[in-house]
Amino acid sequence: xxxxxxxxxxxxxxxxxxxxxxxxxxxxxxxxxxxxxxxxxxxxxxxxxxxxxxxxxxxxxxxxxxxxxxxxxxxxxxxxxxxxxxxxxxxxxxxxxxxxxxxxxxxxxxxxxxxxxxxxxxxxxxxxxxxxxxxxxxxxxxxxxxxxxxxxxxxxxxxxxxxxxxxxxxxxxxxxxxxxxxxxxxxxxxxxxxxxxxxxxxxxxxxxxxxxxxxxxxxxxxxxxxxxxxxxxxxxxxxxxxxxxxxxxxxxxxxxxxxxxxxxxxxxxxxxxxxxxxxxxxxxxxxxxxxxxxxxxxxxxxxxxxxxxxxxxxxxxxxxxxxxxxxxxxxxxxxxxxxxxxxxxxxxxxxxxxxxxxxxxxxxxxxxxxxxxxxxxxxxxxxxxxxxxxxxxxxxxxxxx
Length: 401
Fold this sequence. Notes:
By secondary structure, the chain is α/β, with parallel strands linked by helices. Helices cover 41% and strands 15% of the residues. It contains 17 helices and 14 strands. The strands form three sheets. It has a seven-stranded mixed sheet, with helices on both faces.
C-alpha cells in the first residue's frame, strides 16, 4: 500500500485534533481511493518462503495474519493513537474485550487490583468475580476520594482501574491526584474514557498510563458496530497487551474498523453538540427529578473538577425518580426517546440501569455504587432539544412527576 504523504509521526503530531480525526492513519492502495478501503482478508501471501519466515521471526516488516495486523484496523489504531496523544493503540472486538485485555495482560495470580466502585456492570463483574477466579485480589474503593486509593495500596498492587465520568452515576475521578498516587508507587493506571472520548478528555495528559475505550459508543456514534480500543506507550502495547491479545484473539473485524474510522471523522462535531444539548435537557430535568447527576451542572458535587479536566461533559447523564415503578412509568410514556441500554448514539436513548446494564451486579454492589431502583440514564442525541424536552415533559407528567 502507498501511505499518504505526511503520515510520519513527526509530521502528524503537529496536526490539530480535527485534522487528525480526518487524516490520521490514512493509507491508500495503488488505486488511490479517497475513502479508506476495507481489507476483508484473514491472511496474506508472500513472494518467498524466506520472506514469510523473516516476517514471523520479526526480522522483516509486513503483515502475517489478520489476528495480528490488518490494513483497515491498523489505520484505525493509528488514528485513535493520534487523537489520544499516545504512542500506540490496539483495537478490539468490543469495549469489554478492551477492558478485559487491558487488565488481564498485566495481572497474574497473587497480584492486587484497586478499582473504582462506580463502573459499568460488566466491569464490576470483571473486577469482582472474573479476576478473583484467576487469583487476582481486588479492592473496591470510592474513586472520588484520592486518599481511598492510597489507603488501598498493598505491596502486591499492580494496577488501578476506574471510569471517569463513571457509568451510570457520573462520579468524576481526580485524574491528576489518583495517577500521581499510582505513579509514585510503580502502579499502572488504566482509565476507561468511553463517556468522554479523547475529544473531551485525555487522561494521558493527567498522568494515566493506559486508556481504554468502548469505541461502540461515541467513536462510532451511530449504533452500528461493536468495537474497543486500548492506548498506551509503544513498549506497553507491544510487550504487555499484544503478547496477550495475539494468543487470545479479541480482534476487531476490518469492516467494523472501517465503520469506526468513518465515525471518528465527525466525533468532535457530534460530541460537542450532544454535550450542549445534554446541558439544555439536564437543566430542564433538574427541577423535576429527585436527584440530578450531571457533572456539567453546578449542582454536581464535582462540577469544578469536571470543568478542570474535561473540555465538555458529554452526552450522558443520570437522574433519579422515586422508585422502579415510577422509572418504568416514565420510560413507558416516552414517544421520541427510545428505551435502550446503549449509549453514545446520535439518537436519544434512556435506560433503567438496575434492570439492564447493572442487572448482573449484586444488589449490594448496586447500592454501594449508587445505582438505585429509581435511577435512569439518558443519552442525549442530536434531535432538536425542544422536542426531547417536550417528550420528557409528557413522560414525567404521566409518571406523576
